[in-house]
Amino acid sequence: MSDDEIVVHDPHDKPATYVEADGLDRFENPGLPPHRPRRADLDEGAAKRAERQVTTMFGLSMLGALGFIVAYLFVDPNLRGEILLIGEMNLYHLILGLTMAVSLLGIGFGAVHWAKTLMPDTEVVEERHLQASDQAARDDAAGVLSDGYRGAQLHRRPMLLLTAGGALSLFALPMALQVAGGLDPNIWRDPSPAEMLSRTVWKKGMRLVIDPSGTPIRASDLTQGSVIHVMPEGYAGAHTEDGPSDQEIMTAKATSSVLLVKMNPEDIKSAKQRDWGVDGIVAYSKICTHVGCPVALYERQTHHLLCPCHQSTFDMTNDCEVIFGPAKRPLPQLRITVEDGYLVAADGFAEPVGPSFWERG
């Protein structure tokens, strides 16, 4: 055969590894590769170093879990700071993320290093058998588990088991805290979730201001049919040096937004609604009692308030009772009065605002 000749192989030719048996083509069993012992298998000093490395990783995991719990309970959730190449961010969330990462990575790296250096690494082939096992097979299985326990050197190195158990146990605590309280530790600092959810920033004497300009509202300036979106004084507009933080303003907008409407007092059917207003001027929470959407669509002719999310409709002539949609309770009313000609809150909300929760009285 010359160098220029091209040899074409039949694609149906059997590889050399095929053998004929019972009329079927089968691959020959290649067997297992020869076992190559690791340094820790031959040198007790190397095994000790590996043990120390694994226990150190598990120990770091435990420290990370404890750090998460301490930060969750004692660090200010509004703590902010400048981070190189990132800029300003919430340091509370950064600390939680880093401590959680240390806890999780410590477990993962420790388990992998334990498996690669100390646990048995020989390949084992087990033939498939019937699902039901006799007593002898069960005894064999128990023996395999026992051999695995010894093969992992748990009987010789109890610190591995102790630190692994400690890391896994402590890592479950941050998970339990997040399931129980989310990422807001205030749930553990307040008497109850109901009391915490009942609070807004409204207090007696706070002036009602236009959102977002922050302009105080004179009762005499309002005309029939006026509709104004208002906030407590100090929480409208942008953050100032001596005012609430951006986070506090955002929280106030989510809980303390109010809709102010000037109505004809003769159209108001509820005595309590008239008493809590000023000459037909009434203030109601904008937070829908269904799932918390902003209720802001006012029909002047019917005096109906509509929620744009799920079409819950509230009757403003009768204490904002629900007349249509999935909401189950009226919108809470903010009691207002007049001081020096300006509208102010006579008190905070008398009931929780926003959607339902099971602790609501």
From TrEMBL:
Family the UniProt entry places it in: Belongs to the Rieske iron-sulfur protein family.
Protein's membrane topology: Multi-pass membrane protein
Protein role: Iron-sulfur subunit of the cytochrome bc1 complex, an essential component of the respiratory electron transport chain required for ATP synthesis. The bc1 complex catalyzes the oxidation of menaquinol and the reduction of cytochrome c in the respiratory chain. The bc1 complex operates through a Q-cycle mechanism that couples electron transfer to generation of the proton gradient that drives ATP synthesis.
Transmembrane spans: 57-75, 91-112, 159-177
Compartments where located: Cell membrane
Chief place where the protein resides: membrane
Signal peptide (residue range): none
Alphabetically ordered keywords of this record: 2Fe-2S, Cell membrane, Disulfide bond, Electron transport, Iron, Iron-sulfur, Membrane, Metal-binding, Oxidoreductase, Respiratory chain, Transmembrane, Transmembrane helix, Transport
Location of the Rieske domain: 276-345
Keyword Protein biosynthesis part of the UniProt annotation: no
Stated name of the protein: Cytochrome bc1 complex Rieske iron-sulfur subunit
Pfam families: QcrA_N, Rieske
Domain of life: Bacteria
Record carries keyword Signal: no
